[in-house]
Amino acid sequence: MNSKITAIGVYVPSKRITNEYFEQFIETNNEWIISRTGIKERRFAEPDEFTSDMCVSAVKNLLAENPGVNLDGVDFILVGTTTADQVMPSMASQVQNAFSIPNCGCLDIMAACAGFVYGIVLAKGMIAAGTHKKILVLGAETLSKFTDYTDRTSCILFGDGAGVALIEPSDQPKVLNGITGTDGSHGKDLYLSQHNTLVNGEQIDPNGKIHQNGKVVFKWAIQTITNKVGELLAKNSLKLDDLDWVILHSANLRIIEAVATEINYPMDKMLTSIEFFGNTSSASIPLAWDLASKAGKIKPGNKILLLGFGGGLTYAGIIVEV
Ligand code: UT7
To answer: Is residue 211 annotated as part of the catalytic site, yes or no?
Structure first.
């Protein structure tokens, strides 16, 4: 059974945080942040607004903006997140409860910034196996609640947001072949821990905040993602010219520009959300998709390559036709 994405929805908190905000407590400035990351602003959730709330708001927006779409028959919910409200219950089960969806499997995916694309890869497989028919895939993060505001190399990056895609069976293959992979030897280069544990044999900081070895992740991302775009195209017997758009995880505009240069692809066909929402981890790809849709860029029949990457270090990619 083939599958397709039949609707998407997003949500971002209303509180806008400009680059100048960070000048109050760390040595930084607007010019550095824009030139080194591409970020102009990001959104922060309120103290009483959590990842599950944003998941529910994204689904509500999906329903409001897609007349005729409903949640009847949704039989699985997958939520990519590393910033869940709590360890259990899962964010997926909170969404199930908010919409009283009966007979629905619920699972959170902990694949950091690749979580949303991992969800699409899994949903495609579940529909192909014939075990499920209507799946909500979300990517949602409240990174602002897990940010170390004394670390100027990371705190300026993160923002909060959520996105959701509805995936259903299709006559034609609209969700094409995906790829997934991980290099766990880089686990210590991007982590969030509340326990005094070892990662890759090294003691990590248990303060419950995101730690990133920015330079290492930056280089890994450019090299890995450049290679994986080619692998993903080959796996689908497609060429770059067959694509209408590419959406890489919006981690840093310089990573996206470097990959575009490496693969010789025009930057104006790389869709991003980094400028307005910062690095929103698993939400960044649906946010970029939504921005481009609302700007009238994405049209029916377009082919889009999605590639997420992040903590693990892990990645997942897939090509979809809308
Ligand atoms: O989402 C998951 C995947 N994550 C990523 O892919 C993120 C990958 N990494 C990055 O995006 C970048 O490495 C960062 C944005 C985190 C850092 O950018 P960079 O160009 O690698 O900067 P850097 O760490 O090499 O620092 C360059 C300089 C340093 O000063 P010196 O040593 O040259 O004097 C830093 O201390 O910039 C300094 N610096 C800052 N200056 C002003 C670092 N952070 C800041 C800051 N404001 N916020």
So the answer is: no
